[in-house]
Amino acid sequence: MQLNWKWSSEKQYPLCVKLVVSILFLGLAFRLLFYRTNAFLNVSETLVSVDFQENRDRIPENGTQLSNNFNRSVSVDLDQSRYELTGKLNQYPENSTQASENPSVSPDLEQNKGQIDEHNGAHQPDNPKPSVSDSFPESRDQITKKGLEYAGFLIWHDYNNAEKCDLFTGDWIPSSSGPRYTNETCSLIEGHQNCMKNGRPDTGYLYWRWNPRDCELRPFDAELFLELMRNKSWAFIGDSISRNHVQSLLCTLSKVEQAVEVYHDEQYRSKRWHFPSYNFTVSVLWSPFLAKAATFEDYNGVSTADIQLHLDKLDSAWTNEFQSLDYMIFSSGKWFLKTAFYYENDTTLGCHNCPNKNQTELGFDFSYRKVLQNVFNFIVSSNHTGTIIYTTSSPDHFENGEWYNGGSCRRTEPVKEGELEVNELNKILRAVEMEEFEKAAAKASEWGINLKLLDVMQLSLLRPDGHPGLYRYFHPYDMDNSTKIFYDCLHWCLPGPIDSWNDLLMEMVLR
User: Fold this and answer.
1) How confident is the model over 36-49, as pLDDT tens digits?
2) What kind of membrane protein is this, topologically (predicted)?
3) For a 10 Å CB count at each end of the chain, is N or C smaller?
4) Domain containing residue 46
């Protein structure tokens, strides 16, 4: 039988053509795949170089494999939330901040302690981590969280919530933690506010904490605060409420280190303390009017002559120190209620509460407004690069009279909102300071001045139980019946509600 070879060769010819064409297409596909892979790698390297300018010099040349360590420093994106340093805020040294590679790290103080550079205070972590550029393209509104690893402490700050949070509207809620210090652990408590030592029998006023309604207020962290304030200086400027507040802060910080008093004036009203391990200084500058004034009053508030207040001259006690301070907390108000003669250009302008003196009655609100305008104008035009905080006036809680005619404060628990009203004098003081602060804040924003408000009026109003009352004296009920004593319903027991003001300060510093 003969095979038809002609037919067979004709049938196989198209199969050969198809095989050749298939091989050509397969080769072309491999070539395209290889080309796209190289192009993708080139684009990826370019993107890394653009997004992380500070790491440009660490990117290897093409063809060199990227190390695992470099990849670690790039990947810091969790749940589409960018984490970046808050170290660029002016209160943090530029070379002492570093983003953590692990945003879930606990802020445990003992586990995160590292080594402190002896020369400049910069922290050297036990396990150095690659730094991360802080030049992310997102706007502040797009950043849902920020992380800061500063001197071994990891802080998470939710900026979106913080900007919406009203720290000053809230309630006092029970707290089982109790006071942060006592009269036995802190030696800096002034006698008139040392309620424990003076024999106050109830302790319930020590077991409450301020709770803002819109956000969580973290308790004051003394060790973290001192680390953040390394090589910084603070000053509380104002009257006896400023002194009350600075003692609260110093006692809270004493859990970490005892402050050393390094200065006091002749009357022991202006003082300065130093924390040697942190090179941190805290001052209280006695300036009850914030303006130049001649006062003739002893330590117990007894006057021998009327006050002479110069409305157009600021007090050099604080203006001479202004530029050398990193943080300043101003407060005033109550002294403007006293009888005083007002001066401008060294000429009598009028007075407050001076009947039969042949002077124009101008009122305390007039003088308070004038002085605040001068204070805020000085601050706004100062080009100061630190943080300046104005603390609102706080209410007193005298009931059934004033301090000089039988007024008292006997409550032992906080009250709810609406149970107490701010008295008329405090309403006027508050109206003046809020109006003037609002105008100053707008100007400060334009000029780049960091001016903030610490509004303690409402939270303080709800704590009529926090004052010394008769326990401004040592065991008042053991005193001789012939001794005339008065209730103190203005200042605050230490420890006491004023310690929560430090929680607010801490939050304002972190912001």
Assistant:
1) 444 433 433 333 33
2) Single-pass membrane protein
3) N
4) 16-58
